[in-house]
Amino acid sequence: MIHHQPDKLIKGVAYHGNRILRHVETDMRDIVNNHFNLVVHMFSHTDWDRHRRIMKEIIQITEGHGLDVWVDNWGLGGPPGDKSHFLAYYPDSHQVYSDGSVDPVRACLNSPDFRKFTKEWIDVVLDIGGKSIFWDEPHLAAKSMENGKPKVFTCACSRCKSLFRDKYGKDMPEQFDEQVEEFRIWSVVDYFREVTEYSKKKEMENIVCVMLGGSYGINLDSIEQICGLDTLENIGSDPYWLGQKDVHPYDFVYEKTKLNLDVCKKHNKDHNIWIQGYATPPGREEEIIWATDAAYDAGARKILVWGYRGSESNDYRATFPDMAWNAIGEGMRRITDRHNDEIRRKRLELLKQK
Predict the structure, then answer these.
(1) pLDDT in tens, 217-257
(2) Which domain of life does the protein's organism represent (predicted)?
């Protein structure tokens, strides 16, 4: 397990879309030159099947450049990330909506087969050299929203309905209510309880990032419960401002970061805060710098960006990846300089007191 220096500023970037080793070498040097010290590598089901040995080498290359590594469970159970290939093998493990329709790409978190599959994935992550697992935005799905609550929701498969009946002594209602909301939170938390206990026994670090929102089965109550799991060391969120109405990126990121840090402090957990470096419209690249400053000003010291070069290898990339990457690197440089200046001032004050 990685133990960071208490005053170390962690600056990470998500990296995926490339499995060619000579390009990995060049990209890792570029990442170092832009003031990062951590890389989040995706390890999807496709990577497991087709790139297992390559991913082991990618982790070795990354660490060989002095960068720490988090391994992301990208698309293992469906979005965000890839569609879940697991469901091709276990078709009875789909999430099912309250109207009876089946979600084609998301796995039910209460499926014993999916939990077993997740543990097998953990074994492979350990085998390829992973020490820290980044559990990426776990959530349940919703088709439609009304007043911030889902109208049609998952998971209402026969398995979840049976568990609901056992817990509440009645059938799961088709309409969303407080008990359904409670059950959805319980499903997310119980999944993490089981799989993180497994990885913790293997001395791996567990980090999670959650999306706040009723449609995801995630709210402040669920974050409180997730923080209650002693197998999770680090709880984070991604205050992405693009698409939000009438917000300034600095204000939005600052306020959401403070909220995240307050919950983490209450439960004595570490944190991770993500800056949006993808889907950046032309002319708005400097907002990445403002957002990075905001996260740092709010107290975050583990700040990460999605993703490398403005997520250039994805359809959701920044319009001008070079411009976005320049802003991302400048944001990291600024907080690096500020952090080093703060440490120097603190040490100087201590020396003056002697």
Answers:
(1) 445 566 778 888 999 999 998 999 998 899 999 999 999 99
(2) Bacteria
Question: Cα-atom radius of gyration of the chain, to the nearest Å?
Answer: 21
For residues 328 and 13, the answer to whether their CB atoms sit within 8 Å is yes
User: 292 is written with which tokens?
Assistant: 């990075």
Helix, strand, coil percentages for the chain (3-state, nearest 5) = 45, 20, 35
pLDDT at 228: 86
Q: Which residues of the chain have pLDDT under 50?
A: 1, 214-218
In whole angstroms, what is the distance from residue 157 CA to residue 170 CA?
15
Burial 216-248 (b: 16+ CB within 10 A, else e): bbbbeebbebbbebebbbbbbbbbbbeeeeeee
Q: Choose among 282, 221, 212: nearest CA to 252.
A: 212
What does the CA dihedral 11, 15, 267, 300 come to, rounded to 10 degrees? 30
pLDDT at position 137 is 79
- Name the nearest CA neighbour of 73 among 39, 37, 45, 34: 45
